[in-house]
Amino acid sequence: MIERAGASIASRFVHGAGARDRPRRLRSITPARTEVVVKIVVIGGTGLIGSKLVARLEARGHEAVAAAPNTGVNTMTGEGLAGALEGAQVVVDVSNSPSFEADAAMSFFTTSTRNVLDAEKAAGVRHHVVLSVVGTERLTESGYFRAKRAQEDIISASGVPYTIVHSTQFFEFVKGIADAATVGDTVRLTHARVQPIAADDVAEAMASAALGAPKNGVLEVAGPEQYGLDDLVSKALVARGDARRVARDEDAGYFGAHVEETTLVPGEGALVFATRFDDWLSR
């Protein structure tokens, strides 16, 4: 479910989060103008977000192609890209680096993105949509987020019309955050605010972006509630019967980057979805 105003998808302002400065921020996704069947290639289409996105696009009557190594498409080498993109109007990239290590992430995002964009130009693709992370431009101490920023810069300079979707942390990723911050039986985390979102809602946002007009800018999406990161992880661990203890540590950072209170929250104009973390936990 998503908040609406009239017939358009509307945004809700995030109180306490200041406007951000790069790139242009967008308040809505323009709905598709027609019901013409569109061929949309989903890079990373067999993963968490990709599989949900493919299902949504197919349910709307479009031709959705899941492009991933296990379907014969390797974006690092370019293998299978030309065939997958033949006749496609839109490409949505929700793939992720298999490693968070700085050099590996940079190699993956820059090489893969250039290969995909080159294939798009050859195929005449009219819209490139990519999933990225709220706060990417502020998390410069992290090699992984520097790689995501480099990916965005390549896309914006490519000449292919594009939409960059910045998402907050997925509910499904909270355990991974805990695991990365665990020493012994203690999880050390900052109290910096986050505004997490369900993967189903991210997939819905990506589908709407894919079927809308290119924005040539960034759209932020988030869930309805803000938490301190330590409080969010503690809630999740308790709900799952995980005995690890969460300790607040403002020096803990976030995947190698120092964070301030609002580094990880979206700015004004973010598109806010309705799924609450407690409701997701109870499923």
Automatic annotation (TrEMBL):
InterPro entries: NAD(P)-bd_dom, NAD(P)-bd_dom_sf, NmrA-like_oxidored
Gene3D superfamilies in the record: NAD(P)-binding Rossmann-like Domain (3.40.50.720)
Matches recorded under Pfam families: NAD_binding_10
Keyword NADP tagged: yes
Keywords: NADP
Residues in NAD(P)-binding domain copies: 78-209
Annotated coiled-coil segments of the chain: none
PANTHER family: BLL4366 PROTEIN, NITROGEN METABOLITE REPRESSION PROTEIN NMRA FAMILY MEMBER
Name of the protein: Putative secreted protein
Organism, as annotated: Sandaracinus amylolyticus
